[in-house]
Amino acid sequence: MYLIGVDVGTSSVKVLIIDELGNVAARSSVEYPIKSPSETYAEQDPEEWWEATNLSIRGALKASGINPADISAVGFSGQMHGTVLIGRDEKPLRDAIIWLDKRSVKECEDFYRILGRDRVLDITGSPVMPGFMGPTLLWIKKNEPSVFDRIFKALLPKDYVKFKLTGSINTDFSDASATLLFDVGRGVWSDYIISHLSLPPDIFPEVLGSADVAGSVTESSSRVTGLKAGTLVVAGGGDSQVGAFGCGVIENGVVSANIGTGGQVFTTIDEFKYDLRRRVHTFRHVVPGKWCLQGAILSAGLSLRWFRDNFAQVEKITGSLCHIDPYDLLSKEAELAEPGCDGLIFLPYLLGERSPHMDPYARGGFFGLTFGHRRSHFIRAIMEGVIFALRDSLEVFRDLGVKVEKVIARGGGSRSDLWLQMQADIFNSMVFKAGIEEDAAFGAALLAGVGAGVYKDFKEACEKTVKFTKFKQPDETRAKIYEGIYRGIYRNLYYLLRHYWAPKNTS
Question: In a designed cystine with 238, which of 45, 175, 223, 506 is the match (CB 3.0 to 4.6 A)?
């Protein structure tokens, strides 16, 4: 008996096949590009997600040698907030506008002007930011009316791929709660928001629980994926919540810190509450009857990728020739620099920033540069800056009464021992590494297991499958150094510099 988890991410589709004890039978991944037709735009072709999913599922099935008839169910995870618009012919009307997109800054202002800042927060539990479905739909309505008028359904990324697999159109509570169009406390699409924004209510799909059966594999999708027709498919969820489930973050006091393209700090709460200062988001968890607090930064692993692509060509070539991950080479070089980088500090606001600043105009930079700094200092400063940015959200959680008992490191950044130790030192907390790096695909497979009755509930799914491979204790000396940098310098830099980034009134 096996389960498949599909994670429709920002840079690739990842597929895992696991058994009921969580052992990985096979994994497969296929990448796709991000299109940027204008400086602030970020789009992807939904058909490329679907093609990549087909290839990934077929690749995983081939690698495992498993009979497709032995797959009990398929679960989904996906990049959040993005917008896929399909017409009545059930084909995309345009490329998807994804979470990295910044074109709807003006529409965010319209959101607050039309609805009221406090009312929006009361309903959605989140501040309004570009890239979310709500402001994106306002932008489409204003700038592409011929597209807007032909919308049959507005889908989130994983729900489009799931529709292609099953022929069924639906979403789930966790992903819907991150659209800014959903009543997160009540668990329904918000009539108030949708009507006041003059959006057609019938374009929003049915909402299911994340482990509810959403459909089954069709005959046509069976031919392209290799899955058996009729295989159960569950609704799935947003990648942040599904990934947290995949590493056991379903109870109070446990926090996950994810370093992927972006970064998230996530914790589970038992009731709907939100930050009155609009620094973090409140969403629905994939676990029934639970919510979550999430702080998000836009350029986590992306910051190190920016450095790799622009200043580490030798490492890229060496890695390709010697089958070594160039990030491992960069991490080794960063170890040559002392903690604190002799005063060099990096702000990772390459795409603006979400938590805690919610400022699409924020800009990144290096500060404290001297003649004595070397390349190793720059690499380490980037890594430290990403963790300082994640700590900003951890401090908000503490302000909101969350007791941080342990931190679970997730995502590609957890591969690096240096980045793991930095988290322990900068958070001043024990940090555990999740046993499965592809936690969102793993969590999606567990959702499939709950939906198919392999596990009686979410707790049993975690108890049977979730493992941790290592942990890091904070070093007292390094933690003291980082505490001084964080409280004395880092957390003040944004507020000292933000007026330089703010748009100037030229009228």
Answer: 175
